[in-house]
Automatic annotation (TrEMBL):
Identification of the protein by name: Methylglyoxal synthase
Major enzyme class: lyase
A Pfam family it matches: MGS
Reaction(s) catalysed by this chain's protein: dihydroxyacetone phosphate = methylglyoxal + phosphate
InterPro entries membership: Methylgl_synth, Methylglyoxal_synth_AS, MGS-like_dom, MGS-like_dom_sf
Function recorded in the entry: Catalyzes the formation of methylglyoxal from dihydroxyacetone phosphate.
Similarity-based family: Belongs to the methylglyoxal synthase family.
MGS-like domain: residues covered: 1-139
Keywords: Lyase
One Gene Ontology cellular component annotation held by this UniProt entry: cytosol
UniProt-annotated binding residues for substrate: H8, K12, T34, G35, T36, T37, S54, G55, H87
Length: 139
């Protein structure tokens, strides 16, 4: 599965701890991330990550484009709900696209935990079936 990992600055430490705790699961999947988040994951958790631009420079939109092409299976996005972001419209757009294409997206650690354990226990198999069938292209 292709998994996007994103964290706003005040949530980056939480995401690193989360990815470290579930490294055995994450290492079996293909990881993508916004720029700084991806750099930290590769440095601190030693997992390979495809890095996009930093969020404020378009990284959320790059991940959104993958969702629109049915190329992203899950998004874990530790948002900071207490700090205004200059690229708030991009954040909203990413979450919207996940809803358009029914891609599982967690915006906090509690939900992320459920998603990642669901992934481990095979509850994401429907994504494989969808890929085999050519996916939903939203038309
Ligand atoms: O701002 C972000 C998501 O909206 C995250 O970007 P960085 O991972 O580059 O800090």
């Amino acid at each position: 599965m292709k998994i996007a990992l994103i964290a706003h600055d005040k949530k980056k430490e939480d995401l690193i701890r989360f990815v470290t705790a579930y490294k055995d699961i994450f290492e079996r999947h293909e990881l993508f991330a916004t720029g700084t988040t991806g750099m930290l994951i590769s440095q601190e958790v030693s997992l390979p990550v495809h890095r996009f631009k930093s969020g404020p420079l378009g990284g959320d939109q790059e991940i959104g484009a993958m969702i629109a092409r049915n190329e992203m299976d899950m998004v874990i996005f530790f948002r900071d709900p207490l700090t205004p972001q200059p690229h708030e419209p991009d954040v909203t757009a990413l979450i919207r696209l996940a809803d358009v294409y029914a891609v599982p997206l967690a915006t906090n650690m509690g939900t992320a935990e459920v998603l990642i354990l669901g992934l481990k226990n095979g509850y994401m198999a429907w994504r494989d079936i969808e890929h085999e069938q050519g996916g939903t292209d939203g038309e």
